[in-house]
Design goal:
By secondary structure, the protein is α+β, with helices and mostly antiparallel strands. The chain is built from 14 helices and 12 strands. It folds into 3 domains: about 170 residues, Beta-Lactamase (2-Layer Sandwich); about 100 residues, 2-Layer Sandwich (Beta-Lactamase); about 70 residues, Arc Repressor Mutant, subunit A. The strands form 3 sheets. It has a 5-stranded antiparallel sheet, sandwiched between helices.
């Protein structure tokens, strides 16, 4: 019963991140050990890459001496490193009392300084990273580990292995997600995370401000919506496609008056089974607002997409929210000519619709300054 409780706590704490080391210490004590120490050894520099250990006493100066000198003399480390991954190793099976008495490591450091004597350890592999050496340490003055202690620890090693890897992976993902969110805030990007049903499960501060600012993006029944019907249909369709295909798309939304494109969205899928700070999210949307200056010019469009001068002029008008009919009337050209130019723009931007073409042109060139 105790074992089942510990296993559940280990996995839960590994994901939560806040008290994993405390739960690991409780597990250490449950198998008869006093403290734990886990680290990854760098054979080139003959020192640890990382080192994590029990809290509760001032271990820092003690561990510092291990890392700077005594770790290289530790006879137990080579025993654990040579053992098959996930196999429990007990130093008492390999290091005799005579060996201890003649060992600089034990006599000058481990017993008098660290106050430790016996170790149960295991080598834990981690895909794509260096392996972890886990030591369950028993204080000096206590008896060697019993068969019952060893059996209990051996049965927990697979769970300790998975939980420690999960804790390390979760720590990295939480850190990267936090850094990414902070960077988006600094860049002024609004961020929205959507679940598989399209409901918003996360928005950053810029996103909250955007939704409450009367812009081209609203929150309707928990889902993102655009005020104009055509834009709203395009938004919902794009979210659905990305959720199904996991292929990113871009989209531009017009202001509520329809006068010009106001927001520029990048819609991407979040890989399945990926642990993020966005919980159950499957789609991530980042949003930028239009700056004070025109985002694109006819010349930029001509250069970027291989448009003719006439096609580029029509393309710029489309990005500013002008319909082909209004452009034809304003410029005094045939509507059929403009429609032909629009078809050429769709072909050269690899788009099936005018909305998609505008989104593509604006997203590709949105960070360029006007000429």
């Amino acid at each position: 019963m105790l074992k089942d409780h510990l296993i559940g706590d280990l996995y839960e704490a590994a994901i939560r991140q806040d008290d994993f080391l405390e739960v690991l210490q409780s597990t250490t004590e449950a198998v008869g050990a006093t403290w734990f120490h886990m680290f990854s050894w760098d054979p080139v520099n003959n020192c640890p890459r990382f080192s994590v250990y029990s809290s509760g006493i001032d271990w820092d100066p003690i561990i510092s001496r291990y890392e700077q000198y005594y770790g290289a003399l530790d006879p137990r480390r080579s025993l654990v490193e040579r053992a098959p991954a996930g196999t429990l190793v007990c130093c008492q099976d390999h290091i005799s009392e005579r060996d201890v008495a003649q060992s600089e490591f034990y006599q000058d450091y481990q017993i008098p300084t660290a106050g430790l004597r016996y170790l149960m350890g295991a080598r834990l592999t981690r895909p794509g990273s260096s392996e972890t050496l886990l030591g369950l340490l028993r204080a000096a003055g206590r008896r060697p580990y019993s068969d019952k202690d060893r059996e209990s620890a051996a049965s927990l090693i697979p769970h300790l292995h998975r939980a420690i890897n999960l804790w390390q992976d979760a720590k990295t993902l939480h850190r990267d997600a936090a850094l990414g969110t902070e960077l988006m805030e600094q860049l002024g990007l609004a961020v929205f995370a959507l679940d598989k049903d399209g409901r918003v499960v996360f928005s950053n501060q810029a996103g909250e401000a955007l939704l409450s600012g009367g812009t081209a993006l609203r929150l309707r029944h928990g889902r993102l919506a655009a005020p104009l019907a055509a834009d709203n249909d395009a938004l919902l369709a794009a979210i659905l496609r990305v959720a199904r295909s996991r292929r990113g798309e871009s989209l531009a939304l017009r202001s509520p008056t329809g006068a010009s494109h106001e927001l520029f969205l990048s819609i991407a899928g979040i890989p399945g089974q990926t642990l993020t700070t966005f919980g159950s999210a499957s789609v991530l949307i980042t949003v930028r607002t239009q700056g004070k200056h025109p985002l694109v010019t006819a010349r930029q469009l001509q250069q970027a997409f291989g448009l003719t001068q006439a096609e580029a002029a029509v393309a710029q008008a489309l990005t500013e929210g002008t319909s082909p009919e209004d452009y034809a009337n304003t410029k005094g050209v045939s509507p059929n000519t403009v429609r032909y130019q629009v078809r050429a723009i769709l072909s050269k931007t690899n788009s099936r619709s005018q909305v998609k073409a505008v989104s593509t042109m604006l997203w590709v060139l949105s960070q360029n300054k006007a000429d």
